[in-house]
Write a structure and sequence with these properties.
Layout: E1 9-14, E2 20-26, H1 29-36, E3 40-44, E4 51-54, H2 57-65, E5 73-74, E6 82-88, H3 93-103, E7 108-113, H4 116-128, E8 133-137, H5 143-154, E9 160-166, H6 181-209, E10 212-217, H7 230-250, E11 255-262, E12 265-266, E13 283-284, H8 285-297, E14 306-309
Parallel strand pairs: 1-4, 6-7, 6-9, 7-8, 9-10, 10-11, 11-14, 12-13
Antiparallel strand pairs: 1-2, 2-5, 3-4
Length: 316
């Protein structure tokens, strides 16, 4: 890690119980931390300013109490609760990239997907980045399995804020009149019913905790007409309106819900399609993941309802 990139930074102080206690904000924050002899781990160099996490609170606490770092100390501008993030569709694509981005940002992770081997490989990477990680192989089109991953995610969850990322998705683009009913059913169940089931299992936890977030990963096809994408567009448009309704129903009870509508993104969803845009022109999964991470980590005094994120060249 290039320490020069962290000269202008914020140092997030985490207490022994995982609660965010405050922010040391200064143009000399890194130098101050080094003078204190604090142990640091970088969580994000892409944030503005970059963020590092103080992991040695025992050294930091006496300095706060003695007033030695008074003018640099601020109360947290984001939720003081640790985020525990359930990522559905974590084994590949945007879901996988989101899990990696969050693992570098101080979040706890519950990774959900059908393919156990890929989840375990991802979990090892996230744990190497310092994130507490749990794998839950699951088919989100089965409601009882959604209930189970939420039950597991809730274990020892006192003081954490629950977050759900719905990023599982499948697609087949082509002539609707010749598309198999099995493919249509798979797209509707995976892209719409699965996230609906996940939200149904998850919402009671948000109400119990008093706050929480849902990020639904959609597509610009939720709001833009594309020939050859009838089933896929129907599933994404349905989830967009579902999210709007859910946010309206539970906003005043602490739920923040964001729908992310990315343009063409370079993931495995394009494999075996009849038409594939130039991949070099697409968004990367990591770019979309950075957006999702920033939504999850944004201050609790704001809510972003919808984000449309496009490749520089627009619709491809």
């Amino acid at each position: 890690m290039n320490e020069d990139a962290l000269v202008f930074c914020e140092l997030v102080v985490i207490g022994a119980d995982g609660e965010q206690l405050g922010i040391l904000a200064s143009s000399r924050a890194l130098d101050i931390a080094c003078e204190m002899g604090l142990d640091l781990v970088v969580i994000s160099t892409s944030a503005s300013p970059p963020i590092a996490r103080i992991i040695d609170y025992n050294k930091f606490s006496p300095l706060v109490q003695s007033g030695q770092i008074d003018e640099q100390w601020q109360r947290p501008r984001i939720s003081p609760k640790m985020k525990r993030v359930i990522v559905c569709g974590a084994s590949s694509g945007i879901g996988r990239a989101t899990a990696v981005a969050l693992s570098e940002s101080g979040c706890e992770l519950v990774l959900v997907a059908r393919r156990r081997a890929l989840l375990e490989e991802l979990a090892a990477q996230c744990e190497k980045n310092g994130a507490k990680t749990i794998c839950v192989p699951c088919d989100i089109t089965q409601y009882t399995e959604c209930e189970e991953f939420v039950r597991i995610a809730k274990l020892d969850s006192d003081g954490v804020e629950p977050v759900l990322v719905n990023s599982a998705g499948v697609a087949e683009f082509g002539n609707f009149a010749t598309m198999s009913v099995t493919s249509i059913d798979d797209q509707i169940r995976t892209n719409l019913l699965g996230p609906v089931y996940a939200c149904r299992a998850f919402i009671p936890w948000v109400l119990e905790a008093g706050s929480g977030q849902i990020v639904n990963v959609l597509s610009i096809s939720a709001s833009t007409v594309f020939a050859g994408a009838a089933a896929y567009s129907a599933s994404k448009a349905g989830l967009l309106m579902f999210g709007k309704s859910l946010a309206s129903e539970y906003r005043k009870q602490g739920l923040r819900l964001t729908s992310v509508l990315p343009g063409a993104t370079d993931t495995a969803i394009w494999a075996n399609q009849s038409f594939v845009p130039t991949r070099e022109d697409m968004l990367s999964a990591e770019a979309v993941a950075d957006c999702i991470r920033d939504v999850i980590l944004m201050p609790a005094d704001r809510s972003v309802d919808e984000i449309t994120m496009m490749p520089p060249k627009g619709i491809l």
